[in-house]
């Protein structure tokens, strides 16, 4: 029978000198096992076999180890509490499973070579003063956070969410639109394997989007199920055009406050899956070397916390249980976190 020290090291892949005694490892294993049971109950996990339990326990153990390492590092740096970390629904996911939610880095690099930039100049009226904070939810023009499920369709959700709000701002009606239509029917995209947001915006300009009720989300690739024949414009939402915004966070904030939300892409770090609140401030090292892929979200506003640290309000597509306020994330503003300003787009709709 192997000692718990060896067992625990195998679970977490630790070096021998990180756990010193069988007694230490026994209590750590017991604590970890209890945390895992709480996790299973909290997130209604019912695993189908012992092999599945083992697989999920190993993934959970690794995430707990990474979480404790992060908390310990922040304590040593004196920045504890700026970001709230904790156990999330992703703690029993493997890295391969998490990566399926994202767009592969090589996909973005290949597709970016074909990108035609249409950069819009952000203009403001004379005497304009940017509000200290802005949140389109307060105007009643943002739909509830959705869930992309186990599909790399963040590109579709970030674009559709932005168009939903833009349509509500200009037409006075908030309609939940169909991401699944983009996944199935935009032949320029790769569905659950990734997509290019300018192509999605071009599709919405040319073809329009049905409501989510008319074309509900499934979370997998499928055959386009649009009715044949002429397009009925009264049944779809269109945009007039789309543009790329300058890579300047002040100008992006001006656009959001005076026009509407934007969609952006960033390198998704492992720590995003541990986020529970506060301001998410990933380091350049995390963004460059610990990213599992690219992730697109919608920026629906901005603000500052009680310490005057500026942040963006990001609407995610990982369900209402993620992050704060029903599926949102606050990300540090003013430092181009994880390349946030690199590819920012918005829609143009005539009043």
Automatic annotation (TrEMBL):
One of its GO terms (molecular function) is cysteine-type peptidase activity. Residues 130-348 form the Peptidase C1A papain C-terminal domain. The keyword Hydrolase applies. Pfam families: Peptidase_C1. It comes from the Eukaryota. SMART domains: Pept_C1 (SM00645). Keywords: Hydrolase, Protease, Thiol protease. One of its GO terms (biological process) is proteolysis. The keyword Ribonucleoprotein does not apply. Belongs to the peptidase C1 family. PANTHER family: CYSTEINE PROTEASE FAMILY C1-RELATED. This is Peptidase C1A papain C-terminal domain-containing protein. It comes from Meloidogyne incognita (Southern root-knot nematode worm).
